[in-house]
């Protein structure tokens, strides 16, 4: 329907203002920060409740004594402090099961009978890993600490207790009750109620870019009762307000002054982080400070995040531990059996000597009895096989992640030239999670959009004017606007339709011209836009920059200026407009701001001709019901057609109407408004009723089409993500109509989708709506399945579903039994759009998916209202650049544009997941091969746990011989090129299906390790069975073979070679040979020169070749057959890349050989 793409100004209701008082909003209007109110706010504590906060203005000490002392104004976003750093960091690190395992081993090594390594050095490997990780975590937290210090030590002007004088005070020292003065362009240090402003009417303008990422101005008010008083008189005031709470969309309070109670509402509080704009100064009293401010209460703190692979790795480590314990049990049992069978020979056997005669007398020697020997064998075998679980893996992972992060930050495809902003990695331990994202939760304003509206077309008196022409550079307006001898022109001009311009200029007496004239008067007056004068290089020319709460309003006012209706001045009581070169003043008698029930905004003005006119604009669904339809039906029909056309283009639409009020009707309205505005209860409903009574029988003037400029590449990015199997959900505080409109603009919603809309205001109605939605989903899904079965390949994808739900409904659903029903509906739908949601509701939606599914989640936003959502998700991304920094500071990664998600996820995410998955499995394989190989030797050494490989080579195996190659592969290997991954988004699928790391692959790796260890052990044993080769030489054979084997195995799996990989893999192999030779060159070693003699024989090299062939043959055969019989997407894409390279090479050869036979070319 047309209404699905309509839009309205994005702010909440301020009531109509009577003629007898200045233009101020009703205290209980709910329009903070240009976002919809959180319905949960209705449940907030009323000011009259027993736990209401009492704030004695200018008396912070007295305020603190009335109840528990309010928090100071210092904020803290760090995870640690000096006391908690060590215990909390150790707790977080020991969530890795491997660390517990190695800690237990180090403790056991302190027992003399079990000591394998030096007692002092037993904790060194684990200690080094813990220390390096703690340094990294400490550095990250120190960065947050520095940011907090900079914030807490900023200075603000605070009223001295004596009154009358303001003195500088650090932000962290501000207390509840302090009176604070903020100058223009300064940031508000706490949540404060404005008492006075530079404007005599108490109006101030604030920018919430640090809170919600929006740069447009919002209006906040000081009550006239306090604005007119000197500072020393404020000390008698008492504010009763609700306790600190999370609801940044509402505020309930009263101020007691001179025996009167004055109501305060959301427009009477300025939140911490807002900036004062277009107002010389604002003085307010602090009501919430520090961690009790609304923005900090919505900050859930920096969470401890671990990657999905690292969490799953604990499962494999436990399996390896069980296998190791089984091995140890087998060794201990076999030892007991062997000792019992050879109990009469223990005095002389080489491995166990029961008696020692070396000192002349018999004494016990190396034997503690059968039971203890079995126990010691079990415990010593744990030490012997401790490398089964690779502690070096964690160091390798950290090095690879650090390098991956650096390469991501250097990626030019994620660099934004407009803001000179690079991609930033703020968390170094979840890079691989970027390759497994299933759900993307995105904010709208500043994330998907630029928050810049552009007027595109208009329908006036039933005529479509959409043939806009670009303005001539330097053009001012149809008529120059001159004020005080200076030419003023709008900062931005929009495309204008020549026919409409001609109508305004030359058709003043025709009905169409009158409609057009009133149309633009409505556009230029029915808003809250304030003109701001900017200097230019030419002193005789000034620019008019329009600032307002709604980007829609700004776009409309700029459009009116381009057509000759230039807004010159707006105050609380009048509006000055340059109408086609003629200065006109309109008295502002009252206005009804937009609210989500009426979906309209209206203004009542006294025109220069003494008439009183009501101008109204709003969504078409809300406007057509209040239009006078007894005449001008043809205009109505044509306007509806134009609206449908605009909506199909994804434009935000508004309908403009008007009505002239008689004196009697205006007086009646003024009387009812005065009565409603002084009501003690139900004030909002009464004021809404007043607006509904006056907004009726309107004459239609026309409609507008506004384009909300999306960030570059957003529709293409969303389409790429959806093709990759990623579901994109949009969570916004905007109205439902606005959200739907943006959904169409960014191609998130399409006309082919069936929309399920849930707008309920009670738990029972939510339950009924969800039940109906589930039934509809099941019905449509079954229909889609039958259609697919009957049409087969003709069906492109079945029926697409989109769920659209608002914040009031989520209040009754989240954290109740209805969550399960919402989960069923949401997971069935292809698209979910949540509108009018509060920050914690955003986090609640993310938590809903995290609790009920193992799928990975990613949240992306740009404002403080997105912080909770960002921190709740598995991966949080903050949009940086021109927006605020709150989201960036709370994020794991930051970028300047939404479109950068595509290369981040589809390219770097895919690469990182592939690299890290392979690194983990390879490390398990590498250590398992070595441990299994040494295990076989126990069958030939009386289960004595002796080893033919030198201790030095055993330590160097994981630390030097095979360590660096796997790290380099984890940094540089690429299974597919960037071009292929971006071209075929479906190649992101392996990460969603856990295709590169799962239990099946782990089992196969272990079986392969078992086979390779068997070949490694028995081929040399068979080859040298009848020779005089000593055990030291056999040990050299085994260590050289296993190193070369695992490195060749690694080389077989490398997809994309470069010189670094060649250097590390073959360099480490060469280093292994050199080290083994060097170790055997020591006269103190039992295998003195053993390696040299060994490598001088042909048997060694033949044995070496047989090991490589036999060990890798099963793996090679399986890979070949799987690639030809059941190739996966990655293998197919790699073959496609090879064909492309051959084609490109052939094309180059042909182009470089122009004498080639053209007939032969055509034949080819």
Automatic annotation (TrEMBL):
Enzyme class: translocase
Membrane topology value: Multi-pass membrane protein
GO molecular-function terms, A-Z: ATP binding; ATP hydrolysis activity; ATPase-coupled intramembrane lipid transporter activity; magnesium ion binding
InterPro entries xrefs: ATPase_P-typ_cyto_dom_N (IPR023299), ATPase_P-typ_P_site (IPR018303), ATPase_P-typ_TM_dom_sf (IPR023298), ATPase_P-typ_transduc_dom_A_sf (IPR008250), HAD-like_sf (IPR036412), HAD_sf (IPR023214), P-type_ATPase_IV (IPR006539), P-type_ATPase_N (IPR032631)
Enzyme Commission number(s) of this protein: 7.6.2.1
CC cofactor: Mg(2+)
Taxonomy, superkingdom: Eukaryota
Active site: 443 (4-aspartylphosphate intermediate)
List of residues binding Mg(2+): 443, 445, 862, 866
Family from the record: Belongs to the cation transport ATPase (P-type) (TC 3.A.3) family. Type IV subfamily.
Name under which the protein is recorded: Phospholipid-transporting ATPase
Natural source organism: Phoenix dactylifera
Lineage: Eukaryota, Viridiplantae, Streptophyta, Embryophyta, Tracheophyta
Protein encoded by which gene: LOC103701112
């Amino acid at each position: 329907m047309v209404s699905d793409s309509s839009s309205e100004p994005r702010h909440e209701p301020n009531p109509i203002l009577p003629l007898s008082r200045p233009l101020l909003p009703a205290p209980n209007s709910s329009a903070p920060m240009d976002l919809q109110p959180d319905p949960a706010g209705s449940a907030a504590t009323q000011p009259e409740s027993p736990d209401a906060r009492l704030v004695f203005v200018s008396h912070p000490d007295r305020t603190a004594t009335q109840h528990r002392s309010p928090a100071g104004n210092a904020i803290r976003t760090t995870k640690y402090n000096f006391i908690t750093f060590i215990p909390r960091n150790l707790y977080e690190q020991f969530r890795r099961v491997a660390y517990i395992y190695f800690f237990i081993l180090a403790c056991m090594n302190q027992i003399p009978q079990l000591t394998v390594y030096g007692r002092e050095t037993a904790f060194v490997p684990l200690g080094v890993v813990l220390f390096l990780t703690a340094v990294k975590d400490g550095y990250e937290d120190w960065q947050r600490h520095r940011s907090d210090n900079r914030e807490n030590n900023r200075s603000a002007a605070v009223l001295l207790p004596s009154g009358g004088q303001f003195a500088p005070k650090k932000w962290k020292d501000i207390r509840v009750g302090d009176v604070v003065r903020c100058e223009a362009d300064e940031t508000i240090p706490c949540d404060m109620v404005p008492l006075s402003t530079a404007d005599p009417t108490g109006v101030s303008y604030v920018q919430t870019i640090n809170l919600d990422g929006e740069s447009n101005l919002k209006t906040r008010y000081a009550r006239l009762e306090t604005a007119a008083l000197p500072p020393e008189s404020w000390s008698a005031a008492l504010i009763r307000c609700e306790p600190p709470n999370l609801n940044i969309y509402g505020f309930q309070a009263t101020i007691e002054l001179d025996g009167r109670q004055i109501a305060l509402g959301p427009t009477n509080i300025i939140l911490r982080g807002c900036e004062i704009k277009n107002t010389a100064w604002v003085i307010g009293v602090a009501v919430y400070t520090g961690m009790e401010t609304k923005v900090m209460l919505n900050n859930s703190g920096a969470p401890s995040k671990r990657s999905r692979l690292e969490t799953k790795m604990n499962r494999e480590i436990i399996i390896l531990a069980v296998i190791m314990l089984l091995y140890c049990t087998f060794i201990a049992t076999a030892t007991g059996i062997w000792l019992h069978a050879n109990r009469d020979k223990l005095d002389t056997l080489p491995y166990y000597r029961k008696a020692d005669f070396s000192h002349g007398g018999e004494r016990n020697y190396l034997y503690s009895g059968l039971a203890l020997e079995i126990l010691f064998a079990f415990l010593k075998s744990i030490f012997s096989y401790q490398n089964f679980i690779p502690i070096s893996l964690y160091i390798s992972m950290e090095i690879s992640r650090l390098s991956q992060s650096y390469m991501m930050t250097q990626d030019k495809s994620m660099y934004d030239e407009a803001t000179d902003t690079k991609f930033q990695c703020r968390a170094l331990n979840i890079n691989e999670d970027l390759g497994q994202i299933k759900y993307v939760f995105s904010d709208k304003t500043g994330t998907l959009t630029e928050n810049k509206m552009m007027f595109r077309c208009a329908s006036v008196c039933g005529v479509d004017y959409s043939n806009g022409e670009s303005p001539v550079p330097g053009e001012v307006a149809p008529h120059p606007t001159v004020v005080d001898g200076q030419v003023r022109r709008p900062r931005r001009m929009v495309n204008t339709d020549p026919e409409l311009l001609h109508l305004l200029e030359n058709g003043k007496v025709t009905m169409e011209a009158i409609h057009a004239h009133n149309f633009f008067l409505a556009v230029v007056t029915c808003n809250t836009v304030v003109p701001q004068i900017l200097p230019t290089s030419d002193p005789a020319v000034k620019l008019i920059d329009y600032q307002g709460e709604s980007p829609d309003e700004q776009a409309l006012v700029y459009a009116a200026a381009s057509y000759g209706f230039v807004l010159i001045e707006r105050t609380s009581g009048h509006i000055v407009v340059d109408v086609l070169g003629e200065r006109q003043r309109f008295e502002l008698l009252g206005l009804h701001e937009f609210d989500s029930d009426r979906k309209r905004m209206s203004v009542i003005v006294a025109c220069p001709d003494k008439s009183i006119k009501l101008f109204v604009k709003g969504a078409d669904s809300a406007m057509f019901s209040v239009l006078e339809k007894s005449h001008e039906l043809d205009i109505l029909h044509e306007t509806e057609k134009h609206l449908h056309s605009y909506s199909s283009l994804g434009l935000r639409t508004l309908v403009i109407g008007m009505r002239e009020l008689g004196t009697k009707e205006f007086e009646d309205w003024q009387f009812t408004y005065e009565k409603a505005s002084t009501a003690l209860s139900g004030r909002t409903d009464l004021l809404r009723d007043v607006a509904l009574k006056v907004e009726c029988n309107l004459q239609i003037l026309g409609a507008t089409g506004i384009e909300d400029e999306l960030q570059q590449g957003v529709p293409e990015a969303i389409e790429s993500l959806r093709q990759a199997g990623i579901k994109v959900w949009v969570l916004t505080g905007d109205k439902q109509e606005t959200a739907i409109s943006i959904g169409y603009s960014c191609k998130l919603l399409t006309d082919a989708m069936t929309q399920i809309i849930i707008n309920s205001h009670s738990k029972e109605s939510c339950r009924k709506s969800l039940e109906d939605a589930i039934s509809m989903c099941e019905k449509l899904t079954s229909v889609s399945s039958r259609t697919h079965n009957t049409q087969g390949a003709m069906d492109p994808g079945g029926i697409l579903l989109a769920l659209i739900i608002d914040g009031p409904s989520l209040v009754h659903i989240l954290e109740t039994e209805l969550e399960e029903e919402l989960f069923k509906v949401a997971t069935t739908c292809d698209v979910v759009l949540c509108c009018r949601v509060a920050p914690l509701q955003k986090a609640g939606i993310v938590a809903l998916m995290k609790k009920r599914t193992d799928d990975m989640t990613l949240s992306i936003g740009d404002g403080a209202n997105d912080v909770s959502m960002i921190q709740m998700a598995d991966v949080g991304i903050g949009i940086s650049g021109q927006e605020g920094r709150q989201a960036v500071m709370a994020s794991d990664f930051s970028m300047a544009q939404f479109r950068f998600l595509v290369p981040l996820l589809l390219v770097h995410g895919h690469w990182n997941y592939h690299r890290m998955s392979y690194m983990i499995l390879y490390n398990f394989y590498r250590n398992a091969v070595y441990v299994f190989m040494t295990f076989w030797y126990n069958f030939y050494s009386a289960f004595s746990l002796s080893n033919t490989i030198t201790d030095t080579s055993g330590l160097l195996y994981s630390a030097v011989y095979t360590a660096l190659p796997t790290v380099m592969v984890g940094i540089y290997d690429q299974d597919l090129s960037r071009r292929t991954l971006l071209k075929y988004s479906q190649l992101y699928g392996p990460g969603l299906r856990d295709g590169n790391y799962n239990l099946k692959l782990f089992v196969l790796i272990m079986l392969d390790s078992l086979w390779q260890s068997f070949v490694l052990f028995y081929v040399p044993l068979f080859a040298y069975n009848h020779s005089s080769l000593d055990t030291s030489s056999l040990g050299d054979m085994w260590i050289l073979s296993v190193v070369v084997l695992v490195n060749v195995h690694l080389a077989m799996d490398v997809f994309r070679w470069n010189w670094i990989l060649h250097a590390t893999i073959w360099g480490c192999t060469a280093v292994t040979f050199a080290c083994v030779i060097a170790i055997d060159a020591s006269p103190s070693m039992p295998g003195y020169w053993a390696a040299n003699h060994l490598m001088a024989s042909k048997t060694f090299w033949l044995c070496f070749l047989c090991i490589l062939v036999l060990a890798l043959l099963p793996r090679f055969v399986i890979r070949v057959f799987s690639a030809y019989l059941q190739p996966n997407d990655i293998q197919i894409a790699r073959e496609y890349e090879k064909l492309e390279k051959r084609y490109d090479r052939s094309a180059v050869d042909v182009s470089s050989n122009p004498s080639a036979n053209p007939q032969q070319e055509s034949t080819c």
